[in-house]
Amino acid sequence: MKLNNKIGIIVDSFGVGVKEGLKKAKAAGAEGVQIYAVSGEMDPAVLIGPKRKELRDYIDSLGLEISALCGDLAGHGFQDAAANPSKIEKSKRILDLAVELGTNVVTTHIGIVPEDTNSPIYAAMQQACEELGVYAKSLNAYFAIETGPEPAAHLKSFLDTLTTNGVSVNFDPANMVMVTGDDPIQGVKTLGDYIVHTHVKDGIRRRSVDPRDVYGFLGYDKMSHEKIAEMAASGAGFEEVPLGAGSVDFPAYFAALQEIGYTGYLTIEREVGDNPEEDIRQAVGFIRSFRG
């Protein structure tokens, strides 16, 4: 196997702000970057006018490109019909920003897709994703759901109900390993038609966990990135670990991505650890070892 995919890094994993994070990503060997675009300096309502061109020019000057923006609004995802109009509007603005910055992928969590396809929560999520999918498609872009909260087969059945592939998949193998115990190799094959971006992350499942404790659920609790990072660091139920130290079978995972014809980014995400910069550098080396 010889990988040809470009290597990306999530700038926010360095925890030093966008510009410094971009420099660190370049120094670590990235070819592209993913950036959170929800709040602060990257909020579409803040990054306006000439600021957008300035950022794009700066990224170009480093010899980088943007693999995706992260538009994850946390909370209950799109489970709450009453909250959805404002979340949909913000998601559209993030999609607009992505296209202006030169990428056509925005990744997100939408909340756990309920097993009961007749539930009001399922209907709310379906309606929101339908609207966002149509909008993304109009921009020749993708709103990509991150894997993990539910088994791949159930996510596929949900995506199959939508009229476009404007809502697609950001595949994260570690989330599947850590939370649902789903097989990421089979997951790649199941979701192959929808995968437009991937995260390269590793993890270990210590015991069975309720996905609602991780990703929240309407009427249960809200999703919080800080809470997920705490859980992934504690190792009580699951633990995020450096690449190659966990349960993701990367040779098989990369082979599965090749099998489905995936040519997009392999984007490194590191949400925990005392020295994420060193972990990220090692991750770049780990992926390069598959390039032959």
From TrEMBL:
Coiled coil: none
InterPro entries: IolE/XylAMocC-like, Xyl_isomerase-like_sf, Xyl_isomerase-like_TIM-brl
SUPFAM superfamilies for the chain: Xylose isomerase-like (SSF51658)
Keywords, comma-separated and alphabetical: Isomerase
Protein name in the entry: Sugar phosphate isomerase/epimerase
Gene Ontology molecular function terms on file: isomerase activity
Keyword Magnesium on entry: no
Pfam families membership: AP_endonuc_2
Domain Xylose isomerase-like TIM barrel: 22-289
Protein species of origin: Paenibacillus rhizolycopersici
Presence of the UniProt keyword Isomerase in the record: yes
